[in-house]
Prior knowledge:
Its EC number is 1.13.11.-. The chain has about 300 residues and is an alpha+beta fold. Helices cover about 15% and strands about 35% of the residues. It has five helices and 16 strands.
Amino acid sequence: MLNQIQGLHHVTSMASDARRNNEFFTKKLGLRRVKKTVNFDAPDVYHLYYADEVGTPGSVMTYFPFPDIGKGRHGVGEVGTTVFSVPEGTLAYWEKRFADEGVGNVARTESFGEKRLTFTGPDGDSFALVEDKADKRAPWVKGGVPGDEAIRGFHSVSLRLKDGGATEELLKFMGYEEVDKSGNIRRLAIKNGNGADVVDIESLPGAGFANLGAGSVHHVAFAVEDRAKQLEVRKALVDTGYGVTPVIDRDYFWAIYFRTPGGVLFEVATNEPGFDRDEDTAHLGEALKLPTQHQHLRPYLEEHLQKLED
């Protein structure tokens, strides 16, 4: 069993409109945009990052807003719900805020003894807030949400799978342990992780397969401290039979990718070098940052990329 994984690093999803996506996360959820850059493989498409003050691993929600992309179809073989952690006793605040902000499909639920508020994003993205009194992570406090109510980071993700058995074994190999179960959902967690410690596996043998599009999660990333730990994880996965990509420089972290038995794309990302490598912490996410290979496109991109704010 591996011991390098620290919990979630980031979750990357697809959107249909960059401006609406930015408004949702920075205004309605009160997160900080910590990076405005572009897709490495499609530089005419933004890659937007939302997180806490500095983009701490375990707090980073990222998006590829492809203009006019078709809407995704939810099903098995995908990340189902992305869950954020909020302080105990704050769901009433968020319920009112969401009503005032016009957030859709808001409902009170409970799972594994935790009070939750489920809601959807602009493209039908599936989200929830969970009250977690043990979460001591510092929130971003300049996004319009008071610090006592603000999002702390990720709590968990749920994986919707036709058969969760093989993916459960993979996660246990990665250092997760089963800590609870409820009906067709098994909860796994990393002990002494980074706060974004939980993965729920929901087995849905009769469900249809998901179709990637706006509102879909593209991949979920797990955190390791540095490149040395990442190489240890990569070797162990390859030795176990997984087809893992070479290490890829993503400017703000190094990444490796592999497909799980259930069809979900996993990434293992380093905590280094972080989002302040090319911007001062006080000004994260303000300027358009481009990968070196796309710097020559700056005049075109600055003219043609959608304006995120007035």
